[in-house]
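Aggregate trends can hide what the representation actually does to any particular protein. For completeness, the protein is quoted in full, as a sequence line and a line of structure tokens.
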Amino acid sequence: MNEHAQMRTGYSACPHDCPSTCALEVDIADGNTVTRLRGDREQTYTAGVICAKVARYAERLYHPDRLLKPMRRKGEKGTGEWQEMEWDDALDLVAEQFIRAAQTHGSETVWPYYFAGTMGLVQRDSIHRLRHAAKYSGQFDSICTNAAWTGIVLGTGLLAGPDPREMAKSDCVVIWGTNAVATQVNVMTHATRARKKRGAKIVVIDIYDNATAQQADMKLILRPGTDGALACAVMHVLFRDGLADRDYLERYTDDPAGLEAHLKTRDPVWASAITGLAAEEIEAFARLVGETPRTYLRLGYGFTRQRNGTVNMHAAMCIASVTGAWKHEGGGAFHNNGGIYGLNTAEVTGLGMRDDSVRYLDQSQIGRVLTGDPEALRHGPPVTALLIQNTNPVNVAPEQRLVRRGFAREDLFTFVHEQFMTETADMADVVLPATMFLEHDDIYKSGGNQHIVLGPKLVDPPEGPRPNLDVLNGLARRLGVDADPAFHKTANELIDNMLRASDRSDLATLEREHWLDCQPDFEMSHYLNGFNWPDGKFRFRPDWSGSPAPNRPPKSLGALGPYRDLPEFPDHFETIEETSDAFPFRLATSPARSFLNSTFSETPSSRKREGRPEVLVEPHDAEELGISDGDIVTLGNERGEVRLHAKVTEGLKQGVLISEGLWPNKSFLDGEGINVLTGADCIAPYGGAAFHDNHVWLRKTGN
């Protein structure tokens, strides 16, 4: 770089699908060239630390393969033949196709499909305003959070918890079901501060010896889908050994006597047979938690991506109520703070235009929807037109063979607004280039901490890419559904209105301060004034299908999955995809450190660090099957087969396989990715996708 280049620093927020929502300092040269990103040192949760993949973001921003021109498909879908278009012509064509589809099948035939490629509240969620204005099919967002959020809220009544910065004041931090080193590095920042300053113990509970487990003082490596059994055995020991806080239980919980009676038979020996942990391991963990009042349970998403994930999350939450850890600074249980913000997004989403008679389709079942499954379509018209922003379902959605078959339909018109030619974009009819987060205005709220962070436009995009908001507003005008004034407002106008309507100050304040700290006071955060139920009691006996939840399915969908079979108290809910003679292994598709879902898989540095698609195989399993490190193997089940390389490694239970990272399908030996093997059946009671809950067979194969 020229030593005379003029430098300035801008402030933003990481937009990606991660609980941390890191506050960023961005170095910009000569007015418009991003050179470096780093964590904002003044924001007390980010504390100057961000993950390596976002620190290298300039590599993504200036990637030579970035989409810069609107394009229309020339040949057959997926062949990569494109013709450049002008922006107005492209939007005209999309509008014409949507109008034609609606005239033939009704407005519900168009499905705006989106998710978390950006977590910005304007650029992500404005798609709903177009959806509601045009009466297009609704989307039930089931692919990520439902099992976890439901499990939390059915205990506490609110998606909130102790200040995550309190991990640094804990004497024991339990990191359960999240590989924080790889997926939310700030958890490790505060946990390791507690270890250095207070001698705190770090406990990691996971299904393999990953990078986070390798930093633990105590690690429990258990079989996938058995976390509820572990939690029950821990609580059994707490009651048995006089480590339960009976005064707290009597004051703050609904049925401690019923829970204790239920747990009488759920001892460590019982749990050992289910989890694969030694009974002694469970006893030691229970004693540590029971004898350490300042125990902070940091609960992740990973262990909820099982068919029993909601029950598992609720069971893990219950431990803090048995010990009374909520009473203490640095104690309690935390998963997500989404319930603290109270942001009024009605203008952005067009909530006032929503018609409850319009059907909702399950996001996770896009393969079934696009291949005409009557149940998935809710017995309505076929989907013949798609608008896709912020997601890559041909790679990330379950039941990949169905998804691919659906996208290949010649009677399906697909419009994708994207930054790169993803595998979804490659199946589209029209692809338009999208801006990246430093090139447009937005606002973000964190799940993993307590901040609202502004993400202003810091640099101009290259000629070509446009923000999501501009595309949606342009389509609304062409479709004749832009009567709502919000379709004619800028992102900053929408942000300012949102903040004012929510009593969260205003845009000018946020521009000056960069973020807002929204953490409630200690008593509220720790539920010392009672949990968020009319009687103030934590629910050991949840009303599984009758209680509110942050993302409860609409009435037209009702409760989902085998909800009638859910247990009365915390338990091991035997509904996972168990092994059998035909399918002797359990497969989990865990995150990779250098990818974030399918994002960053296009950057050379991330790909180099990850190497190639592999499956981790336990050495005894490998020996029994004659598999050596680096061999090509095939995984299969009733949904399909995938070929990739084996990596023989210690650190997981026999009968368990791990495939890290969401590699593009084309990176696999046969061009089909790991989600060929994942199912789309619903997690009870409010839906969700069980990405880590797959039974498979494994065999060595030739080249």
